[in-house]
Amino acid sequence: MANETLLRIIVNGLQNLAMDQQTLAEHLNLRALVRDFVETFVGAPYQPPVPPYPDVTASQSAAANLVATIAANSAFFVLYLGGEPASPITIDVTPDDADLLRLIIDWGTIQTGVQKAMLQLYGLQPAPPPALSNPGAASEERLWAEIVAWLEKIAADSVLLTEVQHIDTDGAGDGNGAPLARMEQETQRTTLNLMLIAGRLPYHLFHAARSAPQGDGPSQASVARGRGERPRGRKRKKRTLARR
Q1: What is the largest distance, in Å, between two alpha-carbon atoms of the chain?
Q2: CB 118 within 8 A of CB 194
């Protein structure tokens, strides 16, 4: 049975998530300026897919790998803030493809809401919630290609954000299982990690406001300051992203 309507919901959610993530990452350039970091964040462009589209199996595998990268980067930020990254939970039944897509939508809905709350904590305006829309004439192949394209942007932006903000990173373990099942687990892991990050932001921003620089430099209370800040001269770890 075709799942075009569920896939369109995922596409719209990822587009919305990408907008909010870029807004926050661009705002955190203030922190990079305050700390005299050389790099600044510039969002990766979205590259719309064009036909011929990859088959569904290939796109699902690519999507699972990209979500794993996003989940790993969310874990690095949890560690940076002094927390313990989340581990996804599993259910005691074997969902079919439609059920897995619905679970991915549910986790994505929570993730989108948490990220919007984080933006508001920084004093920023998040994008409006994604609208529900008809998939139109789009095939599953095209919709999965769009999912991969948005995930490529989100993953690239999450990698650049860790680099610009000098977040220590390390390799992530290999995943296993079918692509859709992995995608659900990694989407869940990202969502749980964002919830952990959001739970630390009020105190995090409280300390940032008290230590904000005065004078000619940026003095916004929202300039983030990590509790686990790396000393200036410390060498950064080499990033090795998971390969599946």
Answers
A1: 62
A2: yes
Choose among 9, 45, 30: nearest CA to 154.
45
pLDDT band per the 50, 70, 90 thresholds, residue 213: low
**Residue 155 in contact with residue 71, Cβ under 8 Å?**
no
At 34 the three-state DSSP class reads helix
- CA 193, CA 187: separation in Å to the nearest integer? 10
pLDDT in tens, 63-77: 999 999 999 999 999
CA pair distance 95, 231, nearest whole angstrom: 47
> How far is CA 92 from its chain centroid?
27
Helix (H) or strand (E) holding 202: helix 179-210
Residue found by looking up tokens 């409006």 in the block: 128
Beta strands in the chain (DSSP E): none
What pLDDT digit, counting tens, does each position of 178-188 carry?
999 999 999 99
As to burial, measured by CB atoms within 10 angstroms (0-12 exposed, 13-18 middle, 19+ buried), residue 76 is buried
Determine if the pTM surpasses 0.70. yes
Tell me the backbone φ, ψ of residue 79, rounded to 5 degrees: -60, -40
**What pLDDT, in 10s, does the model give residues 21-52?**
999 999 999 888 888 888 889 999 999 999 99
Instruction: Spell 94-123 as b/e; 16+ CB within 10 A means b.
Output: eeeeeebbbbbeebbeebbbbbbebbeebe
